[in-house]
Structures are given as structure tokens and as C-alpha cells.
């Protein structure tokens, strides 16, 4: 098992890629703190892990609030122990609106959850990881950090910011044996993508435009990258964005 005796805190673990990663990390031996703003969903992920023979807790937290981020780390430390792995995955798509259309508060909300939330997750977990002698932080960015997407100015800015703070954290905490990396998923089949499509399915043409492989990705294909980065297999990887996008950004 790749994560035997490790403790992993995963945000946005009540749905999509976060839930799949939580189940995969647990199968690899980690004890999981499944964090989500949706308490029922977080508890359901924990229940699924325990039903499969693992150990997990579900904790409600809004990652954009400092007190919540502090409390989610404290709950993890109290109930499982200090985390070795922190996967800052929670995020929202925000409203699809142009810069001129977008309300100031909608811009701020996306930045608060997708960027500040990642920063707060690191800020509150790192002191415990230092005491643990190190660990691995994985931050969820997006290909939206690398290319421009129409009607997604706040989302693109937040995700580019995630790559920036990932680099800074890698520089600041490398000497404590903490590796910090980001994942840039392409289009992945999760509830977020169904919401963006309004519940409909994508045309073949649209899919080929966003993936040279001609399909959208599965959450497992991102969880496997997260598992690699969380484990000692990635022992020399830090400060880097890892693109897993089916080739979206090659053209
Ligand atoms: N699905 C994609 O194609 C795609 C592509 C690139 C990046 N991403 C990013 O991957 C991450 C996971 O997305 P997903 O597709 O699994 O989405 P999802 O909507 O299925 O899951 C996101 C989870 O985050 C939780 N969440 C939202 N706001 C929160 C908050 N303030 N505090 C705590 N939890 C909160 C939600 O309740 C939900 O359970 C996000 O950061 C997203 O931006 C997704």
C-alpha cells in the first residue's frame, strides 16, 4: 500500500474528484479527513470509506473561512492525528459571465473559495506537517490556469493564483521536507462539469476541441495523479503544476 499509516486531509471530498481520491487514498492505507461545506456529503464519503474497511471522519468546513479552515485541521489532528497529506481540492465553477457582466461579489466568491481556500488550507495545516517531519500538499488548479476561458475570468485568475502560491509554498517549506504541487485537470466527468453543461451532454465536436483523446476524463484519472504526488513515488517532485488534460492544452 502506497499510503500506509498516513493521514490525509482532503477538501471538497463530498463529491467528484475529491470523493474518488478519498476512497482511493483510503484503499492505499491512509486515514482520511473528508472535508466539505456539504456536511451530509462529507459524512457520506467517510461512511463509504468505513464500509470498505478504512478509517475516516467527515467534517463540515467552508474552506474560504479562516476559522473553518483552522477547525477542519484541528478536528483532523484531534481525531486522526497530524496530517501527512493535504489535498486542497474544494472549488466552485462560479457564474459564466463576461468581465463586464460579472458582479463584484461573484468575482470575490470564486477567488475566496478557489484561491484563498487553498492558501488557508496550507496556512493552517503546514505547522502540523512540520511537526510531523514533512509531507505532501496537493493543490487543485486547472487548465484554466494555463489557457484563457471565455466567461471565466475569476476562475482562471484563481487557478493561476493556485499555481503561483504552490510555487511559493514549495520554496518556503521545502526545508521542512514538505513537497507542494498542483494538478491541472482538463475536463473531468464530475457533477461540476454536468452543471456547466446544464445537465446536457457534450457534442463530439466539443469534446474533440477540449481533448485530443476525444473523450472527457474520469475522476479516477486525476485521483491517480494525486496519489502519485501524495506518495513517496513523487519524492523529488515539488513546486510544479502537473497537467492531466487529455491533451487540451497541446493545441
Ligand atoms: N471537473 C472538472 O472538469 C475540473 C477541471 C479542472 C479543475 N477542477 C477543479 O477540481 C476541483 C474539484 O472539482 P469537481 O469537478 O470534483 O467538483 P464537484 O462540484 O463535484 O466537487 C466539489 C466539492 O467541493 C465542495 N465545496 C464547494 N465549495 C466549498 C467550500 N467553500 N468549502 C468546502 N467545500 C466546498 C462541494 O460541496 C463539492 O462537494 C475543483 O477545485 C475544481 O475547480 C475541475
SSE layout:
Layout: E1 7-11, H1 16-27, E2 31-36, H2 39-51, E3 56-60, H3 66-79, E4 85-88, H4 104-131, E5 135-140, H5 153-173, E6 178-185, H6 191-196, H7 204-210, H8 219-230, E7 241-244
Parallel strand pairs: 1-2, 1-4, 2-3, 4-5, 5-6, 6-7
Helix pairs in contact: 1-2, 1-8, 3-4, 4-5
Task: Supply the key terms.
single chain; 251 residues; alpha/beta; Rossmann fold; 7-stranded parallel beta sheet; 7 strands; binds nicotinamide-adenine-dinucleotide
Rg result:
17 Å
Bound compounds:
nicotinamide-adenine-dinucleotide
Q: Tell me about the largest β-sheet.
A: 7 strands, parallel
**Share of helix among residues?**
40-55%
Q: What is the N-to-C succession of helices and strands?
A: EHEHEHEHEHEHHHE
Rounded to the nearest angstrom, the distance between the terminal CA atoms is 37 Å
Domain count = 1
Coarse morphology: globular
- What average pLDDT do the residues reach? 97
Could you state the CATH homologous superfamily?
A: NAD(P)-binding Rossmann-like Domain
Going by CATH, the architecture would be: 3-Layer(aba) Sandwich
Give the uncertain stretches in residue-range form.
none
What's the arrangement of strands in the largest beta sheet?
3-2-1-4-5-6-7
Amino acid at each position: 500500500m502506497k499510503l500506509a499509516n498516513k493521514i490525509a486531509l482532503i477538501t471538497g471530498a463530498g463529491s467528484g474528484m475529491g470523493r474518488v481520491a478519498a476512497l482511493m487514498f483510503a484503499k492505499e492505507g491512509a486515514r482520511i479527513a473528508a472535508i466539505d461545506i456539504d456536511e451530509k456529503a462529507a459524512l457520506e464519503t467517510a461512511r463509504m470509506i468505513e464500509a470498505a474497511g478504512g478509517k475516516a471522519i467527515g467534517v463540515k468546513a467552508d474552506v474560504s473561512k479562516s476559522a473553518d479552515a483552522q477547525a477542519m485541521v484541528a478536528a483532523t489532528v484531534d481525531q486522526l492525528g497530524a496530517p501527512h497529506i493535504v489535498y486542497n481540492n474544494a472549488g466552485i465553477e462560479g457564474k459564466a459571465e463576461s468581465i463586464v457582466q460579472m458582479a463584484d461579489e461573484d468575482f470575490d466568491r470564486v477567488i475566496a473559495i478557489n484561491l484563498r481556500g487553498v492558501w488557508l488550507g496550507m496556512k493552517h495545516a503546514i505547522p502540523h506537517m512540520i511537526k510531523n517531519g514533512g509531507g505532501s500538499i496537493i493543490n487543485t488548479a486547472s487548465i484554466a490556469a494555463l489557457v484563457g476561458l471565455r466567461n471565466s475570468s475569476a476562475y482562471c485568475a484563481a487557478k493561476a493564483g493556485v499555481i503561483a502560491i504552490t510555487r511559493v509554498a514549495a520554496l518556503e517549506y521545502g526545508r521542512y521536507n514538505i513537497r507542494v504541487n498542483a494538478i491541472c485537470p482538463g475536463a473531468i466527468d464530475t457533477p461540476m462539469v454536468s452543471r456547466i453543461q446544464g445537465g446536457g451532454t457534450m457534442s463530439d465536436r466539443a469534446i474533440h476541441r477540449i481533448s485530443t483523446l476525444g473523450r472527457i476524463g474520469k475522476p479516477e484519472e486525476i485521483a491517480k495523479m494525486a496519489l502519485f504526488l501524495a506518495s513517496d513515488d513523487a519524492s523529488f517532485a515539488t513546486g510544479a503544476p502537473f497537467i492531466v488534460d487529455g491533451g487540451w492544452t497541446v493545441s
